[in-house]
Amino acid sequence: MHRAKPHLPPWLGVGGVGLAGALGSLKWADSAAAGVGLTLASVALTGATWWAGRSTSQQRRLHSAITVASGSAWLTASCLAGPTTGPLPDLYLMGGPVVALSWNIRMVMRRNPEAATGEGSDKGLLEKVGLARAQIGTAKVEPNRVTAPIALEAGEQTNDDVTKSLSRIASALDLPTTAVRYMPDPSSARRGDLIIVPEDMLAEVVEWEGPSLLGGSIADPLVIGRYDDGSPLQLWLPGDPEANRNSTHLLIAGGTGSGKGDTALNLLTEILSRRDVIVWLSDPKAFQDFRPLRPGLDWGEEGGTGTEVMVEALKAAIPARTRWLGDHGYRQWVPEAAQVQNSSKHTCRKDGTACGCPGMPFLVAWMEEAANTLRALGDDAFTGIAQEARSAGIALVVSLQRPSYDQMSTSTRASLPSVVALGCDPRDEGFSLPEAVLDAGAHPGAWGNRRPGYCYLVSPGIPEDRYPSPGRTKAFTHRAVSPMEVLALWAQRNGATADPVTAKAARGVAGQLYTGRVAPGDEPAAQAAVEEDDMPDGMLVDPEDAHLDPEADLPEPEPGDDAPMFGQDTGHKPSPKEARRLFAQALEQFESEGRMIVGPKDFTDWCDEHGYSRPWVSERLKEAALEGRLEATSQTGRWRIVPALTAA
Questions:
Q1: What is Dmax (Cα atoms) for the chain?
Q2: How many angstroms separate the CA atoms of 595 and 585, rounded?
Q3: Dihedral over Cα of 61, 66, 71, 75: its sign
Q4: Which distant-in-sequence residues (6+ apart) come within 8 Å of 373 by Cβ?
């Protein structure tokens, strides 16, 4: 009975028409007025059926009109002449079941099980976009997401034909182009899934309210926003051998006004909220966006020479960290590496007992506005780091507006497998996203700077069918400043500090320029405020002038006091031995100031003061390199000062 229920209405309709004809004949038999009324009613009902079916298919409209016309004609004749008169009973007994069965057959055909493979599907949409012979299977309907499998005609159509038709499909459905995507089946050239997201759930701006997992591990997902179907937009930086996920570097790319700053803040706040990670960050914009978070960084530089030193320190830290991980039995960084090594499985001792070595936190090296750094250091400044750092538990984050070949080398770009692609110029899409993702329907050029925060995310650990799905990062307003300051304070007190291996490598390059993250209350004495009782009479006085009496009379003039100060002979030129001593003092001065990368141009004032030329300085720099006081960098004419305590 349950299976028969859908097929009963046509038969009930036939029975109802027969009963109505029998009852009507008792009332209106041989009535001319009733004949006129029933005829007009029959015509009107048939016309109304034809008009009501204008929005359905042509076959359904015609079938409905013929059914109503046949039934109303027999009913009119039955009411006027009687249901048993002439051929009326034969027409009823033969025509009624035929009409009812025709509707049953139509229902069976509409529910043809072959529709699961695409047979019998409504192809009106595909016909409009030039894919008439393609077959659509049973669609999977989720909240704000429809996934329909497509099988193209063998030998005639390929997945590329669907890719080229996505804009026409979006037009036929009256949706934006970014709402329609196509994911080809990797094992077939003519099968794939058509994904449609009918409602843009990203239109509403969601403000950042805090990190997603305060105190968690950097190995847990970093949530930076949401997808257009409402699911979280998340990524991972470290690898996971259990999930077969590789560690990754990240590129953040987007034009001016695309929301790149807010995207960076989403990611950085997530990173600083984790317990087993440290961050080295270079920002040539003088921490304009990151100022509230700066206390939580392990090392921050504002570009220039400081960034040069940071890059060199990264190069030195990579082999040191890789060696430590290998000595402790780690093929890649995992959260256990950040803990004290109390396990015999991860020990550097040859006898196999636990070594108790301090753990090694994950390191994120962040290059903000990297175009500035690349112009200063060369377009391949990050190539070696990007190629080698992943095995050392280091993730490189590079943020810039246009990752084109004239900004960074193709080798560096190829070593950044993950990308957050925000709105950009349509001509720059190929620099941000892989070609396969663009073919699947990703179109960041459609946003430009009109939709801040809209982005595509490509990264290991994310299902590939998510790559062409747009997402949106959370917005940072003035209300986020105070929570960010609290987060930075939490990172100071509870976050990881650099392990001895990383800190030694950094100080071996940067000297005192690298201080590491300092907890509140432990600031160096040089940065502490001067106590009021240390100043005579409450005034700021230079210590070397503390013995002077401000009330004493000035001394009497002495011979030579009236000699002119200018226009005289500048004196003797230093001897070669004295010049080398002065040159060594200049290097010590640079080191004390934290200027660990130098070149001839840095000695311009020194040359003017002592009367030497830049070629002479270049020769002294080479000599200092041979003596171990300097070390060559990847940039021609630039030398790294080896801290005096570790000089050869």
A1: 152
A2: 14
A3: positive
A4: 282, 284, 303, 307, 311, 367, 381
Predicted confidence (pLDDT) per residue in 122-159, tens digit: 456 777 777 877 888 888 888 778 888 989 888 888 88
- Residue 569's Cβ-count burial label (10 Å; 0-12, 13-18, 19+) is exposed
Instruction: Yes or no: say if 319 and 385 are a contact pair by the CB < 8 Å rule.
Output: no
> Could you tell me which of 469, 475, 459, 466 has the C-alpha nearest to residue 419?
459
Residue pLDDT, tens place only, 356-389 = 999 999 999 999 998 888 888 887 888 889 999 9
Has residue 398 got a pLDDT over 90? yes
For residue 586, what are the CA distances in angstroms to 603, 607, 615? 8, 11, 16
Indicate the SS3 state at residue 303.
coil
Q: What is the identity of the amino acid at 510?
A: A
What are residue 640's phi and psi, to 5 degrees?
Answer: -100, 130
User: Is a pLDDT exceeding 50 seen at residue 237?
Assistant: yes
Q: Tell the burial category of 361 from Cβ atoms under 10 Å away from its Cβ (0-12, 13-18, 19+).
A: buried
pLDDT (tens digit per residue) in 434-465:
999 998 889 999 898 889 999 999 999 999 98
Per the listing, tokens 């019998």 go with 120
- Tell me: the pLDDT tens digits for 2-28? 777 777 888 888 888 888 888 888 888
Strands 299-301 and 277-282: parallel
Domains of the chain: 5-111 (no CATH), 114-196 (3.30.980.40), 222-510 (3.40.50.300), 574-648 (1.10.10.10)
